[in-house]
Amino acid sequence: MALLLSGKRILLGISGGIAAYKSADLIRRLKERGAEVRVIQTDAACEFITPLTLQALSGHPVANSLLDPAAEAAMGHIELAKWADLLLIAPASADLIARLAHGLANDLLSTCVLATDAPVAVAPAMNQQMYKNIATKHNIDTLKTRNFYIWGPAAGEQACGDVGMGRMLEPLQLVDLVLEHFAPKVLPLEGVSLVITAGPTREPIDPVRYISNHSSGKMGFALAEAAVQLGAQVTLIAGPVQLATPAGVKRIDVVTADQMYQVALEQAISAHIFIGCAAVADYKVAQVATQKLKKTSDDSTSLTLVKNPDIIAAVAALTSQRPFTVGFAAETQDVANYARQKLVKKKLDLICANDVSLSNQGFNSEQNALTVFWADGEQQFGLQAKTELAQQLLLLINERYLHEKSH
Ligand code: C5P
Protein backbone atom coordinates (compact mmCIF):
# COMPACT_ATOMS: atom_id res chain seq x y z
CA MET A 1 0.00 0.00 0.00
CA ALA A 2 1.31 3.42 -0.92
CA LEU A 3 1.97 5.57 2.10
CA LEU A 4 0.86 9.19 2.21
CA LEU A 5 4.36 10.52 1.68
CA SER A 6 5.59 7.78 -0.68
CA GLY A 7 7.97 9.20 -3.22
CA LYS A 8 8.20 12.58 -1.50
CA ARG A 9 11.72 13.85 -1.02
CA ILE A 10 12.19 15.93 2.07
CA LEU A 11 15.39 17.77 2.71
CA LEU A 12 15.49 18.38 6.45
CA GLY A 13 17.64 21.28 7.56
CA ILE A 14 18.62 21.32 11.21
CA SER A 15 20.09 24.42 12.81
CA GLY A 16 21.55 24.92 16.27
CA GLY A 17 19.06 24.73 19.09
CA ILE A 18 18.04 22.40 21.87
CA ALA A 19 14.97 21.37 19.85
CA ALA A 20 17.38 19.61 17.46
CA TYR A 21 16.96 16.46 19.55
CA LYS A 22 13.34 16.30 18.31
CA SER A 23 14.55 16.23 14.71
CA ALA A 24 15.60 12.62 15.20
CA ASP A 25 11.99 11.68 15.93
CA LEU A 26 10.79 13.88 13.06
CA ILE A 27 12.94 11.90 10.61
CA ARG A 28 11.43 8.63 11.88
CA ARG A 29 7.87 9.93 11.59
CA LEU A 30 8.43 11.21 8.06
CA LYS A 31 10.02 7.94 6.98
CA GLU A 32 7.21 5.90 8.56
CA ARG A 33 4.87 7.71 6.14
CA GLY A 34 7.00 6.81 3.15
CA ALA A 35 9.06 9.98 2.71
CA GLU A 36 12.66 9.88 1.66
CA VAL A 37 14.62 12.13 4.02
CA ARG A 38 18.06 13.65 3.64
CA VAL A 39 19.57 15.81 6.31
CA ILE A 40 21.68 18.96 6.33
CA GLN A 41 23.02 20.12 9.67
CA THR A 42 24.58 23.47 10.44
CA ASP A 43 27.79 23.42 12.48
CA ALA A 44 25.87 24.51 15.57
CA ALA A 45 23.34 21.70 15.10
CA CYS A 46 26.18 19.16 15.23
CA GLU A 47 26.81 20.33 18.80
CA PHE A 48 23.27 19.34 19.79
CA ILE A 49 22.82 16.04 17.95
CA THR A 50 25.38 13.92 16.22
CA PRO A 51 25.43 13.39 12.47
CA LEU A 52 25.84 9.69 13.19
CA THR A 53 22.41 9.51 14.86
CA LEU A 54 20.76 11.34 12.00
CA GLN A 55 22.57 9.24 9.39
CA ALA A 56 21.34 6.07 11.06
CA LEU A 57 17.75 7.34 11.10
CA SER A 58 17.64 8.86 7.61
CA GLY A 59 19.69 6.11 5.99
CA HIS A 60 21.91 8.66 4.24
CA PRO A 61 25.08 10.50 5.15
CA VAL A 62 24.36 13.86 6.73
CA ALA A 63 25.52 16.86 4.75
CA ASN A 64 27.17 19.66 6.66
CA SER A 65 29.97 21.39 4.81
CA LEU A 66 29.89 23.34 1.62
CA LEU A 67 33.58 22.78 1.23
CA ASP A 68 33.86 19.02 1.77
CA PRO A 69 35.20 17.53 -1.50
CA ALA A 70 34.01 14.01 -0.67
CA ALA A 71 30.46 15.12 0.15
CA GLU A 72 30.33 17.37 -2.89
CA ALA A 73 31.45 14.46 -5.07
CA ALA A 74 28.73 12.19 -3.62
CA MET A 75 25.81 14.63 -3.87
CA GLY A 76 26.74 18.26 -4.47
CA HIS A 77 24.85 21.09 -2.82
CA ILE A 78 23.06 22.15 -6.01
CA GLU A 79 22.06 18.54 -6.67
CA LEU A 80 20.75 18.27 -3.11
CA ALA A 81 18.77 21.50 -3.51
CA LYS A 82 17.27 20.22 -6.76
CA TRP A 83 16.54 16.79 -5.31
CA ALA A 84 14.10 18.13 -2.69
CA ASP A 85 10.31 18.34 -3.09
CA LEU A 86 10.21 20.22 0.19
CA LEU A 87 12.95 21.81 2.25
CA LEU A 88 11.90 21.69 5.89
CA ILE A 89 14.03 23.50 8.44
CA ALA A 90 13.34 22.28 11.96
CA PRO A 91 14.48 23.68 14.23
CA ALA A 92 15.14 27.06 12.62
CA SER A 93 17.14 29.23 15.00
CA ALA A 94 16.89 33.03 15.16
CA ASP A 95 20.33 33.21 13.60
CA LEU A 96 19.43 30.99 10.67
CA ILE A 97 16.19 32.87 10.08
CA ALA A 98 18.15 36.15 10.02
CA ARG A 99 20.61 34.73 7.52
CA LEU A 100 17.78 33.45 5.29
CA ALA A 101 16.00 36.81 5.47
CA HIS A 102 19.17 38.44 4.15
CA GLY A 103 19.70 35.84 1.47
CA LEU A 104 23.08 34.77 2.85
CA ALA A 105 24.76 31.65 1.55
CA ASN A 106 27.49 31.25 4.15
CA ASP A 107 26.96 27.59 4.94
CA LEU A 108 25.50 24.54 3.23
CA LEU A 109 21.95 24.94 4.57
CA SER A 110 21.54 28.62 3.67
CA THR A 111 23.09 27.93 0.27
CA CYS A 112 20.59 25.15 -0.41
CA VAL A 113 17.72 27.47 0.54
CA LEU A 114 18.87 29.90 -2.15
CA ALA A 115 19.55 27.14 -4.64
CA THR A 116 16.28 25.24 -4.37
CA ASP A 117 13.08 25.93 -6.23
CA ALA A 118 11.19 23.65 -3.83
CA PRO A 119 8.95 25.24 -1.21
CA VAL A 120 10.75 25.99 2.04
CA ALA A 121 9.07 25.47 5.42
CA VAL A 122 10.61 26.96 8.52
CA ALA A 123 9.83 25.77 12.06
CA PRO A 124 11.20 28.47 14.36
CA ALA A 125 12.60 27.45 17.74
CA MET A 126 14.19 29.92 20.12
CA ASN A 127 13.99 31.64 23.46
CA GLN A 128 10.74 33.57 23.84
CA GLN A 129 12.52 36.92 24.20
CA MET A 130 14.49 36.28 21.01
CA TYR A 131 11.26 35.38 19.25
CA LYS A 132 9.62 38.59 20.49
CA ASN A 133 12.53 40.70 19.34
CA ILE A 134 11.49 43.05 16.57
CA ALA A 135 14.49 41.98 14.47
CA THR A 136 13.29 38.37 14.49
CA LYS A 137 9.75 39.47 13.76
CA HIS A 138 10.89 41.47 10.73
CA ASN A 139 12.99 38.57 9.50
CA ILE A 140 10.05 36.16 9.76
CA ASP A 141 7.77 38.68 8.02
CA THR A 142 10.34 38.96 5.24
CA LEU A 143 10.35 35.19 4.77
CA LYS A 144 6.54 35.20 4.65
CA THR A 145 6.56 37.77 1.86
CA ARG A 146 8.86 35.40 -0.04
CA ASN A 147 6.31 32.59 0.36
CA PHE A 148 8.23 30.58 2.92
CA TYR A 149 5.89 28.57 5.10
CA ILE A 150 6.31 29.48 8.76
CA TRP A 151 5.21 26.54 10.89
CA GLY A 152 4.92 27.49 14.55
CA PRO A 153 6.36 28.21 16.99
CA ALA A 154 4.18 27.08 19.88
CA ALA A 155 3.94 28.58 23.34
CA GLY A 156 4.97 26.82 26.51
CA GLU A 157 7.81 26.06 28.85
CA GLN A 158 11.26 26.43 27.35
CA ALA A 159 14.48 24.53 27.96
CA CYS A 160 16.00 27.66 29.52
CA GLY A 161 13.17 27.87 32.05
CA ASP A 162 11.32 30.76 30.37
CA VAL A 163 7.70 30.42 29.40
CA GLY A 164 6.36 31.89 26.17
CA MET A 165 6.28 31.62 22.38
CA GLY A 166 9.27 30.00 20.78
CA ARG A 167 8.96 26.23 21.23
CA MET A 168 9.35 24.22 18.05
CA LEU A 169 6.18 22.40 17.01
CA GLU A 170 6.16 18.74 18.01
CA PRO A 171 7.35 16.29 15.33
CA LEU A 172 3.83 14.93 14.77
CA GLN A 173 2.45 18.44 14.32
CA LEU A 174 5.15 19.10 11.72
CA VAL A 175 4.34 15.80 10.00
CA ASP A 176 0.67 16.86 9.80
CA LEU A 177 1.70 20.11 8.13
CA VAL A 178 3.89 18.20 5.68
CA LEU A 179 0.96 15.89 4.90
CA GLU A 180 -1.33 18.85 4.37
CA HIS A 181 1.23 20.46 2.09
CA PHE A 182 1.39 17.40 -0.15
CA ALA A 183 -2.33 16.52 -0.02
CA PRO A 184 -3.94 16.95 -3.44
CA LYS A 185 -5.89 20.16 -3.36
CA VAL A 186 -9.30 20.42 -4.91
CA LEU A 187 -9.77 24.03 -5.87
CA PRO A 188 -13.22 25.51 -5.25
CA LEU A 189 -13.84 26.48 -8.89
CA GLU A 190 -12.39 23.38 -10.51
CA GLY A 191 -14.55 22.29 -13.46
CA VAL A 192 -16.35 25.64 -13.62
CA SER A 193 -16.11 27.72 -16.79
CA LEU A 194 -16.48 31.48 -16.69
CA VAL A 195 -16.87 34.19 -19.28
CA ILE A 196 -16.01 37.67 -18.07
CA THR A 197 -16.39 40.95 -19.94
CA ALA A 198 -14.06 43.74 -18.85
CA GLY A 199 -12.99 47.26 -19.61
CA PRO A 200 -14.76 49.97 -21.60
CA THR A 201 -16.00 49.76 -25.15
CA ARG A 202 -14.97 52.33 -27.70
CA GLU A 203 -17.56 53.66 -30.13
CA PRO A 204 -16.11 55.31 -33.22
CA ILE A 205 -17.31 58.71 -34.44
CA ASP A 206 -14.99 58.89 -37.42
CA PRO A 207 -11.61 57.27 -38.23
CA VAL A 208 -9.81 59.28 -35.52
CA ARG A 209 -12.38 59.96 -32.78
CA TYR A 210 -14.44 57.86 -30.46
CA ILE A 211 -16.75 57.86 -27.42
CA SER A 212 -15.64 55.83 -24.42
CA ASN A 213 -15.44 55.93 -20.63
CA HIS A 214 -12.95 55.73 -17.76
CA SER A 215 -13.23 52.01 -17.03
CA SER A 216 -9.72 50.60 -16.50
CA GLY A 217 -10.73 46.95 -16.75
CA LYS A 218 -8.89 46.23 -13.47
CA MET A 219 -11.85 44.63 -11.70
CA GLY A 220 -12.62 42.30 -14.61
CA PHE A 221 -8.97 41.34 -15.00
CA ALA A 222 -8.65 40.77 -11.25
CA LEU A 223 -11.70 38.52 -11.41
CA ALA A 224 -10.22 36.56 -14.33
CA GLU A 225 -6.91 36.10 -12.51
CA ALA A 226 -8.55 35.08 -9.25
CA ALA A 227 -10.89 32.67 -11.03
CA VAL A 228 -7.96 30.84 -12.64
CA GLN A 229 -6.23 30.64 -9.27
CA LEU A 230 -9.39 29.13 -7.84
CA GLY A 231 -9.34 26.48 -10.55
CA ALA A 232 -11.83 27.85 -13.11
CA GLN A 233 -11.51 27.94 -16.89
CA VAL A 234 -11.74 31.57 -17.92
CA THR A 235 -12.49 33.43 -21.13
CA LEU A 236 -11.98 37.16 -20.79
CA ILE A 237 -13.61 39.42 -23.35
CA ALA A 238 -11.67 42.66 -23.06
CA GLY A 239 -12.40 46.10 -24.41
CA PRO A 240 -9.45 48.44 -25.10
CA VAL A 241 -7.40 48.41 -21.87
CA GLN A 242 -3.73 48.67 -20.92
CA LEU A 243 -3.52 45.44 -18.93
CA ALA A 244 -1.52 42.24 -19.30
CA THR A 245 -3.42 39.00 -19.74
CA PRO A 246 -3.40 37.02 -16.47
CA ALA A 247 -1.70 33.61 -16.74
CA GLY A 248 -4.01 30.81 -17.83
CA VAL A 249 -6.75 33.12 -19.12
CA LYS A 250 -8.09 32.92 -22.68
CA ARG A 251 -8.45 36.54 -23.81
CA ILE A 252 -10.51 37.84 -26.71
CA ASP A 253 -10.02 41.53 -27.50
CA VAL A 254 -12.87 43.62 -28.83
CA VAL A 255 -13.37 47.33 -29.38
CA THR A 256 -17.05 48.19 -29.81
CA ALA A 257 -20.16 47.13 -27.91
CA ASP A 258 -21.44 45.36 -31.02
CA GLN A 259 -18.27 43.27 -31.19
CA MET A 260 -18.46 42.52 -27.47
CA TYR A 261 -22.11 41.51 -27.87
CA GLN A 262 -21.31 39.05 -30.64
CA VAL A 263 -18.34 37.43 -28.89
CA ALA A 264 -20.13 37.37 -25.51
CA LEU A 265 -23.14 35.51 -26.87
CA GLU A 266 -20.95 33.03 -28.74
CA GLN A 267 -18.95 32.31 -25.58
CA ALA A 268 -21.75 32.49 -22.99
CA ILE A 269 -23.58 29.40 -24.22
CA SER A 270 -20.69 27.15 -23.25
CA ALA A 271 -20.06 28.78 -19.84
CA HIS A 272 -21.42 27.96 -16.42
CA ILE A 273 -21.10 31.54 -15.21
CA PHE A 274 -21.15 34.83 -17.12
CA ILE A 275 -19.88 37.97 -15.39
CA GLY A 276 -20.54 41.28 -17.11
CA CYS A 277 -17.90 43.53 -15.66
CA ALA A 278 -17.45 45.69 -18.75
CA ALA A 279 -18.56 49.31 -18.79
CA VAL A 280 -20.31 48.99 -22.12
CA ALA A 281 -21.07 52.30 -23.80
CA ASP A 282 -24.82 52.82 -23.69
CA TYR A 283 -24.86 54.54 -27.07
CA LYS A 284 -23.01 54.43 -30.34
CA VAL A 285 -22.90 56.96 -33.15
CA ALA A 286 -25.70 56.30 -35.63
CA GLN A 287 -23.60 57.04 -38.70
CA VAL A 288 -19.85 56.55 -38.30
CA ALA A 289 -18.17 58.94 -40.73
CA THR A 290 -15.78 57.24 -43.12
CA GLN A 291 -13.59 60.37 -43.30
CA LYS A 292 -12.41 62.64 -40.47
CA LEU A 293 -15.15 65.14 -39.62
CA LYS A 294 -14.14 68.71 -40.33
CA LYS A 295 -14.59 71.63 -37.98
CA THR A 296 -17.28 74.00 -39.22
CA SER A 297 -17.90 77.66 -38.51
CA ASP A 298 -20.88 76.75 -36.29
CA ASP A 299 -20.39 77.08 -32.54
CA SER A 300 -22.06 73.78 -31.86
CA THR A 301 -22.60 70.49 -33.53
CA SER A 302 -24.45 67.33 -32.70
CA LEU A 303 -24.17 63.63 -33.16
CA THR A 304 -27.06 61.25 -33.36
CA LEU A 305 -26.56 58.37 -30.96
CA VAL A 306 -28.40 55.09 -30.98
CA LYS A 307 -28.60 52.54 -28.19
CA ASN A 308 -26.10 49.73 -28.02
CA PRO A 309 -27.39 46.21 -27.41
CA ASP A 310 -27.55 45.29 -23.73
CA ILE A 311 -25.11 42.39 -23.68
CA ILE A 312 -25.82 41.03 -20.23
CA ALA A 313 -29.58 41.26 -20.65
CA ALA A 314 -29.24 39.25 -23.87
CA VAL A 315 -27.17 36.59 -22.08
CA ALA A 316 -29.66 36.45 -19.20
CA ALA A 317 -32.51 36.09 -21.71
CA LEU A 318 -31.05 32.97 -23.31
CA THR A 319 -33.64 30.22 -23.17
CA SER A 320 -31.23 27.36 -23.49
CA GLN A 321 -27.63 27.03 -22.34
CA ARG A 322 -28.12 30.11 -20.16
CA PRO A 323 -25.21 30.64 -17.77
CA PHE A 324 -25.62 31.89 -14.21
CA THR A 325 -25.50 35.60 -14.95
CA VAL A 326 -23.76 38.21 -12.80
CA GLY A 327 -23.86 41.92 -13.51
CA PHE A 328 -22.22 45.02 -12.10
CA ALA A 329 -23.89 48.29 -11.30
CA ALA A 330 -21.77 51.41 -11.00
CA GLU A 331 -23.95 54.03 -9.37
CA THR A 332 -23.43 57.50 -7.96
CA GLN A 333 -26.52 57.59 -5.71
CA ASP A 334 -29.19 55.38 -4.18
CA VAL A 335 -26.95 52.41 -4.98
CA ALA A 336 -29.02 49.61 -3.44
CA ASN A 337 -32.25 50.68 -5.10
CA TYR A 338 -30.84 51.06 -8.59
CA ALA A 339 -28.93 47.82 -8.28
CA ARG A 340 -32.00 45.85 -7.24
CA GLN A 341 -33.98 47.39 -10.09
CA LYS A 342 -31.26 46.34 -12.54
CA LEU A 343 -31.21 42.82 -11.12
CA VAL A 344 -34.89 42.44 -11.93
CA LYS A 345 -34.99 44.37 -15.20
CA LYS A 346 -32.05 42.52 -16.74
CA LYS A 347 -33.16 39.18 -15.21
CA LEU A 348 -29.76 38.67 -13.58
CA ASP A 349 -29.02 36.07 -10.92
CA LEU A 350 -26.76 38.39 -8.97
CA ILE A 351 -25.59 41.98 -9.15
CA CYS A 352 -22.51 43.63 -7.64
CA ALA A 353 -23.08 47.29 -6.89
CA ASN A 354 -20.50 49.94 -6.17
CA ASP A 355 -20.66 53.64 -5.50
CA VAL A 356 -18.46 55.30 -8.12
CA SER A 357 -19.06 58.76 -6.68
CA LEU A 358 -16.46 57.94 -4.01
CA SER A 359 -13.03 58.91 -5.29
CA ASN A 360 -11.04 56.12 -3.64
CA GLN A 361 -12.85 53.18 -5.23
CA GLY A 362 -14.30 51.81 -8.43
CA PHE A 363 -13.23 53.21 -11.80
CA ASN A 364 -9.48 53.37 -12.32
CA SER A 365 -8.77 52.68 -8.66
CA GLU A 366 -6.81 49.75 -7.19
CA GLN A 367 -9.50 49.35 -4.56
CA ASN A 368 -13.18 48.67 -4.52
CA ALA A 369 -16.04 48.05 -2.13
CA LEU A 370 -19.18 46.21 -3.23
CA THR A 371 -22.60 45.21 -2.09
CA VAL A 372 -23.91 42.12 -3.79
CA PHE A 373 -27.63 41.54 -4.26
CA TRP A 374 -29.58 38.50 -5.35
CA ALA A 375 -33.29 37.70 -5.29
CA ASP A 376 -33.51 36.93 -1.60
CA GLY A 377 -30.26 38.11 -0.13
CA GLU A 378 -27.35 40.52 -0.08
CA GLN A 379 -23.77 40.67 1.14
CA GLN A 380 -21.36 43.54 1.68
CA PHE A 381 -17.66 43.56 0.92
CA GLY A 382 -15.67 46.39 2.55
CA LEU A 383 -13.12 48.58 0.77
CA GLN A 384 -10.11 46.47 -0.19
CA ALA A 385 -7.68 45.72 -3.03
CA LYS A 386 -9.48 44.61 -6.19
CA THR A 387 -7.41 41.42 -6.19
CA GLU A 388 -8.57 40.43 -2.68
CA LEU A 389 -12.13 41.43 -3.41
CA ALA A 390 -12.12 39.38 -6.62
CA GLN A 391 -11.38 36.15 -4.70
CA GLN A 392 -14.06 36.69 -2.11
CA LEU A 393 -16.61 37.72 -4.70
CA LEU A 394 -15.92 34.63 -6.82
CA LEU A 395 -16.42 32.35 -3.84
CA LEU A 396 -19.82 33.96 -3.22
CA ILE A 397 -20.75 33.79 -6.91
CA ASN A 398 -19.81 30.11 -6.97
CA GLU A 399 -21.83 29.43 -3.82
CA ARG A 400 -24.92 31.12 -5.33
CA TYR A 401 -24.36 29.31 -8.65
CA LEU A 402 -24.18 25.91 -6.92
CA HIS A 403 -27.24 26.82 -4.88
CA GLU A 404 -29.28 27.69 -8.01
CA LYS A 405 -28.06 24.59 -9.82
CA SER A 406 -29.24 22.33 -7.03
CA HIS A 407 -32.76 23.84 -7.04
O1 C5P B 1 -27.35 49.39 -17.31
P1 C5P B 1 -25.98 49.45 -16.76
O2 C5P B 1 -24.95 49.84 -17.80
O3 C5P B 1 -25.83 50.24 -15.53
O4 C5P B 1 -25.69 47.96 -16.32
C1 C5P B 1 -24.47 47.50 -15.92
C2 C5P B 1 -24.34 46.05 -16.15
O5 C5P B 1 -24.83 45.68 -17.44
C3 C5P B 1 -22.90 45.61 -16.17
O6 C5P B 1 -22.84 44.26 -15.74
C4 C5P B 1 -22.51 45.74 -17.62
O7 C5P B 1 -21.41 44.93 -17.97
C5 C5P B 1 -23.78 45.30 -18.31
N1 C5P B 1 -24.07 45.93 -19.60
C6 C5P B 1 -24.00 45.20 -20.76
N2 C5P B 1 -24.33 45.77 -21.96
C7 C5P B 1 -24.68 47.05 -22.02
C8 C5P B 1 -24.73 47.83 -20.86
C9 C5P B 1 -24.42 47.25 -19.67
O8 C5P B 1 -23.68 44.01 -20.70
N3 C5P B 1 -24.97 47.59 -23.20
Automatic annotation (TrEMBL):
Ranges where the record places region Phosphopantothenoylcysteine decarboxylase: 1-193
EC number: 4.1.1.36, 6.3.2.5
Catalytic activity: N-[(R)-4-phosphopantothenoyl]-L-cysteine + H(+) = (R)-4'-phosphopantetheine + CO2; (R)-4'-phosphopantothenate + L-cysteine + CTP = N-[(R)-4-phosphopantothenoyl]-L-cysteine + CMP + diphosphate + H(+)
Keyword match Manganese: no
Flavoprotein domain segment(s): 8-181
Pfam families (UniProt xref): DFP (PF04127), Flavoprotein (PF02441)
Active site annotation, chain numbering: C160
Sequence ranges assigned to domain DNA/pantothenate metabolism flavoprotein C-terminal in this UniProt record: 189-398
Molecular-function annotations in GO: FMN binding; metal ion binding; phosphopantothenate--cysteine ligase activity; phosphopantothenoylcysteine decarboxylase activity
InterPro entries: CoaB-like_sf, CoaBC, DNA/pantothenate-metab_flavo_C, Flavin_trans-like, Flavoprotein
Alphabetized UniProt keyword annotations: Decarboxylase, Flavoprotein, FMN, Ligase, Lyase, Magnesium, Metal-binding, Multifunctional enzyme
Pathway: Cofactor biosynthesis; coenzyme A biosynthesis; CoA from (R)-pantothenate: step 2/5; Cofactor biosynthesis; coenzyme A biosynthesis; CoA from (R)-pantothenate: step 3/5
Residues annotated for CTP binding in this entry: G276, C277, A278, D282, K292, P309, D310, I311, I312, F328, K342, K346
Cofactor list: Mg(2+); FMN
A single GO BP: pantothenate catabolic process
Residue segments, region Phosphopantothenate--cysteine ligase: 194-407
The organism's place on the tree of life at top rank: Bacteria
UniProt entry tagged with the keyword Chaperone: no
Cofactor note: Binds 1 FMN per subunit.
HAMAP family per UniProt: CoaBC
Protein family (similarity comment): In the C-terminal section; belongs to the PPC synthetase family.
Protein name: Coenzyme A biosynthesis bifunctional protein CoaBC
Organism: Rheinheimera mesophila
